[in-house]
Automatic annotation (TrEMBL):
Its EC number is 2.1.1.6. CDD domains: AdoMet_MTases. GO terms for molecular function: catechol O-methyltransferase activity. It is an enzyme of class 2 (transferase). One of its GO terms (biological process) is dopamine metabolic process. Belongs to the class I-like SAM-binding methyltransferase superfamily. Cation-dependent O-methyltransferase family. This is catechol O-methyltransferase. Gene3D superfamilies: Vaccinia Virus protein VP39 (3.40.50.150).
Length: 264
């Protein structure tokens, strides 16, 4: 009887070990829902509990230990290394990031608005490519994320180009013209919660912040997906829209960016 229990325990522990160490890591890169479930719902809370810190705090500390201060490219690649080798995070990431870089360079924007800052990864990607005098306004409603983003931005030396606006986009967008003297946005990078893409686009239109030539770049239009937003920009006579296929950040699941130019 004792032998039977001991044998079952050994088999159970071995099976658990194989699942945790081999099967899950093998599955994770291939399945989008699995990436989010494993990293955000299981691994992140476990790491928070074990380390007594949050993932953004661990990312900041990794950046401060491994990147060159004042060098945005070094900070960006250090965050990518952290996310590929340590902990997945919801940055636009290195693969879609290259597409984003190209779209920013093509538009040569003076005023960029970003919806969804998180730790400031995409803010750095965008701001480092702005022409002299160019400014990025980025909105974040989670104060803990905004605090880390400001520290990462300062570490990269880009604080003079980036203004982190704290609060819900729905409240901040109507204040942009008066409070920040913005006439219209040249580029809007949309990367906050997916059900906000469409209402915030319509709000930006109502507030006159989208004008002829404004380029909307929306992340994660395939995964997790933004069907109502895509339906709107792809069928509206006011937009010319194009899909850029890529992969969900730090994974092998298909995702992409949608570029939509406002035609007036
Ligand atoms: C996917 S993350 C942004 C990632 C970032 N753009 C990057 O690539 O590095 C989305 C962020 O948007 C924030 N967020 C979601 N909905 C928001 C809203 N309505 N207003 C302001 N921030 C929002 C979340 O707290 C989260 O930090
Ligand atoms: Mg995203």
């Amino acid at each position: 009887m004792l032998l039977f229990f001991l044998g079952s325990a050994v088999v159970g522990v071995s099976l658990g070990y194989i699942i945790v160490c081999f099967i899950i890591p093998w599955l994770v890169p291939f399945s989008g829902p699995f990436v989010l479930l494993w990293h955000e719902v299981i691994l992140e809370p476990a790491m928070d509990w074990l380390k007594g810190s949050s993932k953004p705090q661990r990312m900041l500390s990794y950046v401060q230990r491994h990147s060159k201060r004042g060098d945005p490219d070094s900070v960006i690649s250090t965050i990518d290394i952290f996310c590929r080798s340590k902990e997945w995070a919801m940055n636009v990431g290195d693969e879609k990031g290259l597409i984003l870089d190209k779209l920013i360079c093509e538009a040569n924007p003076s005023i960029v608005l970003e919806l969804g800052t998180y730790c400031g990864y995409s803010s750095l990607r965008i701001a480092r490519l702005l022409p002299p005098g160019g400014r990025l306004f980025t909105m974040e409603f989670n104060p803990a994320y905004a605090k880390i983003a400001k520290q990462i931005i300062a570490w990269a030396g880009l604080e003079s180009k980036i203004q982190v606006l704290e609060g819900p986009s729905g409240d901040l967008i109507p204040q942009l013209k008066k409070k920040h003297a913005i006439e219209k946005c040249d580029i809007i990078f949309i990367d906050h919660w997916k059900d906000c893409y469409l209402p915030d686009t319509k709000l930006l239109e109502e507030c006159g912040l989208i004008g002829k030539g404004t380029v909307l770049i929306a992340d994660n239009v395939t995964f997790p997906g933004t069907p109502d937003y895509l339906e709107y920009v792809r069928n509206s006579p006011h937009y010319s829209s194009q899909y850029f296929k890529s992969y969900l950040e730090y994974s092998k699941t298909e995702d992409g960016l949608e570029k939509s130019v406002f035609l007036g």
